[in-house]
Design brief:
The chain has about 170 residues and is an alpha/beta fold. About 50% of the residues lie in helices and about 10% in strands. The chain has six helices and three strands, in the order αβαβαβααα. The protein is globular.
């Protein structure tokens, strides 16, 4: 709740009841989060493209995002991750690295690539600048998946982002 933006309607959020974040300790709520991923996706069903956006250096989002990504890939759905890391402290740097390791595990387990756009908060690229870049990325992805592009359908895009699917199809030919 501490990171919720004021004015966001409850139907656009998912709150893990009885939890108050993980305080940058990734293992803190992992089991409870993992048990709730089905409920999260039931409340917020995936569409043609799911964009999973989270910090990579925190404790909750850096656990929730790979678990959601894994479930979506397991369902054979199109998903793109936007991760925001930091090396401002040792804990943030270690969490960011461990989040990448989580995504590596997801890729191995699901035998599918994890398509990601990574940003790093830093003194030269502060949070406000990263936020603008994230919004630009989401806007471009929405335009790409809008179904308003001539001769480009959602299956074309799925195949483009799901490289191992294309490799498998080409091997079978």
């Amino acid at each position: 709740r501490s990171n919720l933006i004021a004015g966001i309607a409850p139907e656009h959020t998912y709150v893990f009841e009885g939890k108050d974040g993980s305080g940058q300790i990734r293992a803190d709520n992992h089991l409870d989060i993992a048990a709730s991923i089905g409920d999260v996706l039931q409340k917020h069903p995936p569409g043609d493209l799911s964009i999973v956006l989270s910090s990579a250096g925190g404790g909750s989002g850096s656990v929730i995002a790979p678990l959601i990504t894994s479930e979506l890939l397991g369902r054979g759905l199109a998903v793109i991750v936007i991760a925001i890391g930091s090396a401002d402290t040792k804990r943030l740097a270690v969490n960011t690295l461990n989040t990448f390791k989580s995504y590596e595990g997801v890729s191995r387990t699901r035998k599918a690539p994890v398509v990601m756009r990574y940003f790093q908060n830093s003194p030269t690229t502060p949070r406000e600048v990263v936020d603008v870049k994230v919004i630009e990325t989401i806007t471009l992805l929405c335009a790409l998946f809008s179904r308003q592009n001539s001769e480009l359908d959602t299956r074309d895009l799925f195949n483009f982002f799901n490289l191992n699917f294309l490799a498998k199809v080409n091997l079978e030919r």
